[in-house]
Amino acid sequence: MKKFYLSFVTICLIFSATAPLPVTVYAETNSPEEICPNNTEEKPTQEGSTTSSNETNEKKPATADKTNEETTNASNTAADTSSPEKETTPDTKTTSPSPKEKAATNQLLAAGDTYIDTFPDEAFAKVIALQITGNDDTSQIVTQEQLDSITSLNASGKNITDVTGINQLTNLTSIDLSQNQLTSIAPITDLTSLTSLNVSNNLLSIVVITTAQNIPNLTSLNISNNPTITKLSIADQAKLTSFSASLGGRQSALEELTLSNLPALTTAGTSSPNSVYFSNYSDVLTTVKLNGLPKIQRAIFDNNLIDDIDVHDMAGLTTLELHANELTDINKLADLPMLNYLNASSNQLTTAGIANVVQLDALQTLYLDSNLLTSFTLDAENDLPNLTNLSISSMPTITNIHIADQAKLTSFSASLGGRQSALEELT
């Protein structure tokens, strides 16, 4: 019998060594059943020692208790093992970019946006796609990082009608959109690095550039050959030095021009230095407002249809040409300390409409010919102390001329219409 048990134990040990199986170990190992409980049913029956149900029931709790103990230990071990991971989790999160950081990197585009999603004008989208990828397929996905790589954009002559989305090219310094079919440049905003903008030869109607556009570093602007422009307003551009606007001469539709607070501006209209030049410009230009242009020395607006002129706070202005317009009033000419030449002839000026001219103390030459004055007076109380040349010819409506105490006056022209003149008193 002992030999049999020994043989049985040996078989179990060999089997465990060659193919390890989970074996429950009991505290008591007095019988082969306890040593190899999994083989209880295979124990030889000739010995007549089958395991009783009571013994089996007694062993089951022991097995359960042991199993629970091992399970508890395993759970504790797993918990201990996972603890260091929980402790290191904050460090991992610290090194990962937060959602806000990710949003800042790609703040203008949604994930998966394509060129045509970003730039609705197909022709414009192709230009951008081609410059970035070398392929004009507008269905390609684009990222903000790719858009930020563009600093200079040449899209001249590409049949572009709309530049919506251009504000997403945040690092642009130079834009050439000439020779297209643009009707508006309103989308050109928030390009804080932009220094040069060329939108000549388009179909623009209204051009307004102020602080709202947020292009504070703009130095050069070209809007020439846009005969469809009706309103042009440029204000509060601290670095703008050059502004080209040959808009089509007499065919121009320009009605209103405003240039305000442009401290660096030296050229506006044509290439004449230190000048705002809109001579013989438009059959419909009626309103002109200039102020805060300290580097402008000459403002030329002759041969238009201007009926409202407001020129003030122009510290460097020496020459103002307003000949042949529709002016009835020039009293908005003020704060022009260097103005020495004023030609306002061939308008519809009245005596009341020139009342403030005597405040232009630097005037040396004044032309008021061919207007509708009824009287004209210069004396000690209403004088122009530096005036040397005065012309008030071709005014058959004038009845009274009084000129006295003008120390520097050397030339006075007053051909008033001969027999048709209404002149009654001359002093």
TrEMBL record:
Q: Where is the composition biased (Polar residues)?
A: 46-55
Which region ranges are annotated with the description Disordered?
A: 32-103
Which residue stretches does the UniProt record annotate as biased composition, category Basic and acidic residues?
56-69
Cited InterPro entries = Leu-rich_rpt, Leu-rich_rpt_4, Leu-rich_rpt_typical-subtyp, LRR_dom_sf, SDS22/Internalin_LRR
Q: Sorted alphabetically, which Gene3D superfamilies does this protein's record hold?
A: Ribonuclease Inhibitor
Keywords recorded for this protein, A-Z: Leucine-rich repeat, Repeat, Signal
* A Pfam family this chain is assigned to: LRR_4
Does this UniProt record's set of keywords contain Repeat?
yes
Question: Which residues are the signal sequence here?
Answer: 1-27
Read off the PANTHER family from this record.
LEUCINE-RICH REPEAT AND IQ DOMAIN-CONTAINING PROTEIN 1-RELATED (PTHR46652), LEUCINE-RICH REPEAT-CONTAINING PROTEIN 9 (PTHR46652:SF3)
What is the designated name of this protein? Internalin
- Origin organism is Listeria seeligeri
